[in-house]
Specification:
This protein is α/β, with parallel strands linked by helices. It has a domain at 2-87. The protein is 30% helix and 17% strand. The protein contains 12 helices and 17 strands. The protein has a 5-stranded mixed β-sheet with strand order 6-12-11-16-17, with no helix packed on it. Strands 3-7-9-8 form a 4-stranded mixed β-sheet. Strands 1-14-15 form a 3-stranded antiparallel β-sheet. A hairpin with a 7-residue loop joins strand 11 (306-311) and strand 12 (319-324). Helix 3 crosses helix 4. The protein is globular and about 60 Å long. Bound molecules: zinc ion. Zinc ion (ZN) is lined by residues 302, 376, 378, 380, 383-384.
């Protein structure tokens, strides 16, 4: 944790006070400037620190021998998926601006969420004193409150309540995260409930075929979203929760299995592992690169408080539902955590059983061999330490560029998203309880 804070402080020292005003232009120059050392020191390095230390609630570190190359591919992912807000954290706004910006953001978020009544309530908290670093909340145009299909994105114009227009107005350090005022003004005289009924009959609201889940039908717990220096946003429960309670549906775009591997090859592990989740038994995965929900801010833990099950959704692709594995209370700081990397465990055990490296020495042996890997910093007693080992056939070539390693992923590695669901079984949920189907 300490290490992440230091990195963020370093990044802060590298950038101008208004650096975020031209972040978009800078990212457009990534290709032409990828060998320009001053661009790398002053732009690529600080910007990527701002974003990559916050993945998985800051408990996971991606170790790459080609550090510059891996930062560039990750920044391209941010650019191509309109996630620039991740880069505007290296300044602390005044408390008055935070209040003003939050009031607008909150009213727009509330308006949007009232139309999706099943989605649990999320309170957003900001730090009170200037700590140098400040994370902007995610763009409201990226937040989805139920999974969507590729067909909906391709015909986005037919689904205005899923894809409202972005505003160019900025908030929180110049982040572009608000809805276009037309969206609100067009609808301001209509209550969301009225709007919902109206749009349901005209099919504007329907999107993908789903059961009409209502408030408290499946989920009824509320959550807090708060930020920590160098770690980014994290989600916790607002109240004590018993074990085995369904908490929220994971949202994103349902895509073919192959989309996950293609993201890995193009944008690297940071992008692919934090964005794709397998929907077992369907040949599909959930893509959370551009569209997602607040469950994207659930941190990784090797000893997690929550698991994931498949649940009936009303269409052929079941929902990925997060539920409590243990009671969530003061003892675990009401932390919501998931073991994102359990699907890689068998391979890692096999890898180290061949090399005779004891636990505790594993990361050093990978550093020494120059092999890219994912290091866990969850700090739990059962921490596995090494969560993933590069699956490139060229991984032992220390000086090889990241992009080249990524283009040689071993054919036996079938990545279709992180394997979170505990089985292929599809549960039914009624009044916040799992029912055997
Ligand atoms: Zn761990």
């Amino acid at each position: 944790m300490y290490c992440n804070e230091k990195l963020a402080e370093f990044a802060l020292s590298k950038v101008e006070a208004d650096y975020f005003s031209n972040v978009e232009e800078q990212l457009q120059k990534l290709d032409e400037n990828c060998t320009n050392s001053s661009f790398i020191i002053n732009v690529v390095d600080p910007l990527s620190i701002a974003a990559e230390t916050t993945l998985f609630g800051g408990t996971v570190k991606f170790v790459n021998s080609d550090t510059v190359g891996s930062k560039i591919v990750y920044l391209k992912h941010i650019r191509d998926n309109r996630q620039h807000f991740l880069l505007s954290s290296l300044r602390f706004p005044s408390s008055e601006t935070i209040d003003i910006d939050h009031n607008i953001y909150k009213s727009q978020l509330d308006y949007r969420m009232q139309m999706f009544e099943e989605y649990p309530f999320v309170n957003i908290f900001y730090p009170e004193e200037d700590r140098g670093i400040f994370y902007s909340p995610p763009p409201l145009t990226s937040i989805m409150c139920q999974p969507i299909s590729e067909e909906m994105i391709n015909n986005w114009f037919d689904y205005p309540y899923f894809f409202p227009e972005n505003s160019r107005d900025t908030s929180f350090n110049g982040a572009v995260i608000l809805l276009h005022s037309d969206f609100i003004e067009d609808n301001i005289n209509k209550q969301p409930i009225y709007l919902k009924q109206y749009t349901e009959t005209t099919h504007l609201f329907m999107g993908m075929k789903r059961h009409a889940f209502t408030y408290n039908n499946r989920f009824g717990k509320s959550f807090d979203l708060y930020q920590e220096d160098g770690l980014g946003w994290r989600l916790s429960a607002s109240e004590d929760i018993e074990a085995n309670v369904p908490l929220m549906v994971m949202c994103g775009v349902i895509r073919p299995f192959t989309a996950a591997l293609s993201c890995l090859k193009t944008y690297g592990e940071q992008a692919a592992f934090s964005s794709f989740i397998e929907i077992p038994g369907t040949g599909r995965c959930l893509d959370r690169s551009e569209f997602y929900d607040f469950s994207k801010y659930i941190q990784h833990s090797c000893n997690p408080t929550c698991g994931v099950r498949l649940a009936e959704s009303g269409n052929e692709f079941p929902d990925l539902v997060i539920y409590s594995l243990v009671p969530i209370n003061d003892e675990n700081s009401r932390e919501i955590s998931i073991d994102y990397f359990k699907g890689f465990k068998d391979y890692i055990d096999k890898y180290f059983s061949k090399t005779n490296v004891v636990k505790g020495e594993r990361k050093f042996s990978l550093y020494n061999d120059g092999i890219d890997f994912v290091l866990c910093q969850c700090g739990g007693g059962e921490c596995r330490e090494v969560l993933y080992i590069d699956r490139s056939t060229e991984r032992k070539i220390f000086s090889l560029e990241k992009q080249k390693k990524l283009s040689h992923i071993h054919p036996s590695f079938k990545f279709g998203g992180m394997e979170l669901a505990e089985s292929n079984k599809v549960w039914k949920i009624e009044f916040m309880k799992f029912i055997d189907n």
